[in-house]
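hey so i finaly got around to running the thing on DNA ligase from Ambispora gerdemannii. pasting the sequence first so u can double check i didnt mess up the copy paste, my clipboard has been acting weird all day
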Amino acid sequence: TILSKDIVKFDPSKIEWSTPTLYSFLCSTFSLVDKTKSRIKILDYITNMLRVLIYHDSASVLPAVWLSSNEITPSYEGVELGIGSHVLSKAVTSVSGCSHKALKAFYDKYGDWGDVAYEAKVSVRTLFEPRPLDIRTVYKNLLGISKLKGNGMVDQKTDLVKKLLISCKGEEVRYLTRTLIRNLRVGAVGKSVLISLARAFCLTSPKGIDRIANSQYSVDFTNDSKETINTKLKAAESLLKECFAQYPNYDGIVNTLLSHPIDKLMELCHLTVGVPLRPMLGQITRDFDSLFKKLQGRPCNCEMKYDGQRVQIHYNSNSSSNRQVSVFSRHLENITEKYPDIVDIIPKTRKDSITSFILDAEVVAVGENGKIENFQKLSNRSRKNVTLSLITIPICIFAFDLMYLNEEPLLKKSLRERRDLLETRFNQIPNKFAFVKHIESSSEEEIHEFFRESIEAGCEGIMVKVLDEPPRSLDIKTRMNFLASYEPDKRLESWIKLKKDYIEGLGDSLDVVPIGAWHGNGRKVNWWSPILLAVYNPETEMFESLCKCMSGFSDEFYKEMKQRYSHENGNLLETKKWYYDVDEGLRPEVWFEPQEVWEIRGADITISPVYKAACGKVDRDKGVSLRFPRFLRVREDKKIEDTTTSQQLVEMYYKQTKEHNVAEDDELDE
Ligand code: ATP
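ok and heres what it spat out for the 3d tokens, dont ask me to read them lol
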């Protein structure tokens, strides 16, 4: 009943308690959580459970936190219980007297080892009541199991599991078994633990702490309104989340909270070499339109999005162990053993005086000449005990961020500052260690071009990142979404990803006819650029303007084209042909005789008030246009009558809209 009390009104100091706290207390929390879908109730149960422990039995807090989060140590330590159905069924048959066949029948019925063990043991009567299990003992035993190695390990594990199961009663059997196979199946416990921990430490201090001398130890709610209490609890939750994102280790966090005021947490548990932080993530955008709308002309860093494995590389030259380099995956597993080549190359990338750092990078399989290979190649590499000399698939590390350098966390610095440090303090090593290819730009044309280049280079798209802190004049919500700092575990609009799978809604290329042009500027001053392109409408026998194109051409092509479309050979016209449907406002400086078919590809087809292609077919008054067209080649095998028709364009438009909707749904699912 105490667990159901309102967390603000409930005072654990008013209840009688004896220690060490029994495991059944934790299991009754799991059972309550299991029976509700209300997140508010779930958080209240876990918060109250933790508050009782914080006040009366602080030594059980950490074990209870680990057991509630379905882990026994931080995931990056790679500690495994290593208990499978073989060990479990041996132990359960032995303590329950059930046959393997009966267990199998239970398993077919329930599909869950916890339920199977519970059913098997529920009717077993013992002569002597076993000593009740307490939380600390359960946790200690689990750590013990994880340390068993070598010959006879399976039997030793089975014995320990048997001992634990014999001491379990009722629901304890179910939850212990689930913990053993790391499948607690208690709704959302993992995430709720962190929030409950924040609330619990906000509301309660361990018994014996001199509350007066440590007035800040827990937050004082005495005279607070409900709103103020909520604000204080929310602040504590944000603090815990921020801390956990940089330092995902309950050992450090809980021990600090047990001995220090909550506001000291970040000072004591912060970014540390050897402890992986939760990576910053990118927001999906489905097309260039949405991307540019989000950027609103801000200059940004466009980086190639390599298709490999994300790695977080930690280096410490003073490491006491012989491991100076550690490599962690996106999900914070320690994958150093998979990459002896990273361990080998990383110390050589440092410039003088670098003693410690944390890098964010994508590791990609590369061919002989440094050509990017597809992702599959890398996933074939074994996860453990890879030997440097036996590696057959070489890799290149593409570094894109630097979060820590020489004892200094860089998270709060802007991307521009972090990137400058990365590029000035490290050396690239050909085909082994490189900075991600990037451009700094706010130009839609350039960003589009860079996207093309990335795809051609074998990447899966681009990451577009905010470089500098947004101006203070913007409202706080927008500013918080466009932070240029490194925000662990957050998916903000300051990192936007644009993937080719989303863009390739318009997979088909188009065959169009060049019908006019403008005189080029700058480098292109002697050539025609941009060039006006058109599709064909067989119903009206008109060439309808579609778009201006200025990318995908080589200088050589421009030169030759100038000769092909000239007065000398009669292809350059002073006035437009009557069968060219072009808006008066567009006014190309020259017109062409229709004679060539060009293959082009674009980002997407949009409704346009300027271009005449398929006018009236998609929109009553407007035509459609192709965004970001790029020239692919001249189709010498095609005649101008073979040009893409306006009707085909209409079909492409609807197909693309349908695919975008699907992509959008996928995005929501994510
Ligand atoms: P995805 O499935 O698109 O790789 P994700 O959910 O794994 O996405 P996101 O953060 O959403 O991760 O997308 C960025 C991912 O792209 C990173 O996790 C990283 O693996 C990869 N990546 C490749 N190049 C870069 C880069 N230059 N900057 C950031 N991430 C990059």
